[in-house]
Design brief:
Radius of gyration: 13 Å
Number of helices: 0
Helix content: under 10%
Strand content: over 45%
Structural class: mainly beta
Shape: globular
Number of strands: 11
Distance between the termini: 40 Å
Largest sheet: 7 strands, mixed
Length: about 120
């Protein structure tokens, strides 16, 4: 089992950057792939990106490709979502999620553990 806590959200102007962190409890953090999702008011929770267990592979939604990166530090039990060139449409609550095995990275139903979310607001 793993417990996830997101941090780093806030208010930023369009074109700015934020780095979100997803800190995990447990000694088996490297056994989990980590996904990032976001949910805007009145919308579905959408896939943003994901990183594989060892960090060697990352996957991104087309809407953030080239602007967002994901990295992980298994020694610190933490995954980072670096968000650059932010746009007002990136405004949402951002969640990290963990999966011990995954069939489709973008399928939120494949992730068994979720954090509480952190708000990101991008002003125009």
């Amino acid at each position: 089992q793993v417990h996830l806590v997101e941090s780093g959200g806030g208010l930023v102007q369009a074109g700015g950057s934020l780095r979100l962190s997803c800190a995990a409890s447990g000694r088996t953090f490297s056994s989990y792939a980590i996904g990032w999702f976001r949910q805007a008011p009145g919308k579905e929770r959408d896939f943003v990106g994901a990183i594989s267990w060892g960090g060697g592979n990352t996957y991104f939604a087309d809407s953030v490709k080239g602007r967002f990166t994901i990295s992980r530090d298994n020694a610190k039990n933490t995954v980072y979502l670096q968000m650059n060139s932010l746009k007002p449409e990136d405004t949402a609550v951002y969640y990290c999620a963990a999966a011990s095995s995954i069939r489709r990275w973008s399928d939120r139903h494949g992730y068994g553990y979720w954090g509480q979310g952190t708000q990101v607001t991008v002003s125009s």
